[in-house]
């Protein structure tokens, strides 16, 4: 699991996340700042796993999660809200609470790989 798709509406957080993932040996193969681009990339891009912001400019990323479920792609949520969005499929996938440290991201990625 090396190629990661990031869905994040805050450009600074997306860049920080990309840098952190690179430090951990992952490659970010795609990013999307809004729901429409996230859905398009989730359909058309090859990646191993995804990190989804729960809220994209006030819109839930749940449609992206459902598409990833259909494709069998693992993902985790990164959120300042503390939990996955309402309506999420119950799962053992980790939720990364913002703000997070490199060690927390590393642990979440390990859990994601094991899921």
From TrEMBL:
Keyword DNA-binding set for record: yes
One GO location term (cellular component): protein-DNA complex
Residues bearing PTM 4-aspartylphosphate: 53
A Pfam family matched in the record: Response_reg
Any single biological process term in GO: regulation of DNA-templated transcription
Residue span, Response regulatory domain: 3-113
Keywords: DNA-binding, Phosphoprotein, Two-component regulatory system
Molecular functions per Gene Ontology: phosphorelay response regulator activity; transcription cis-regulatory region binding
Classification via PANTHER family: PHOSPHATE REGULON TRANSCRIPTIONAL REGULATORY PROTEIN PHOB, REGULATOR OF RPOS
Protein name in the entry: DNA-binding response OmpR family regulator
Lineage: Bacteria, Pseudomonadati, Pseudomonadota, Alphaproteobacteria, Hyphomicrobiales
């Amino acid at each position: 699991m090396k190629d990661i798709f990031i869905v994040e509406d805050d450009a600074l957080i997306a860049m920080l996340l990309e840098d952190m993932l690179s430090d951990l040996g992952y490659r970010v193969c795609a990013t999307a700042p809004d729901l429409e681009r996230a859905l398009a990339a989730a359909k058309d891009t090859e990646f191993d796993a995804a990190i989804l912001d729960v809220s994209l400019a006030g819109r839930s990323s749940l449609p992206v999660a459902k598409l990833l479920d259909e494709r069998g792609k693992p993902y985790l949520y990164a959120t300042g809200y503390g939990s996955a969005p309402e309506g999420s499929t119950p799962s053992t996938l980790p939720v990364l609470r913002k703000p997070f440290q490199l060690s927390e991201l590393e642990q979440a990625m390990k859990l994601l790989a094991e899921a």
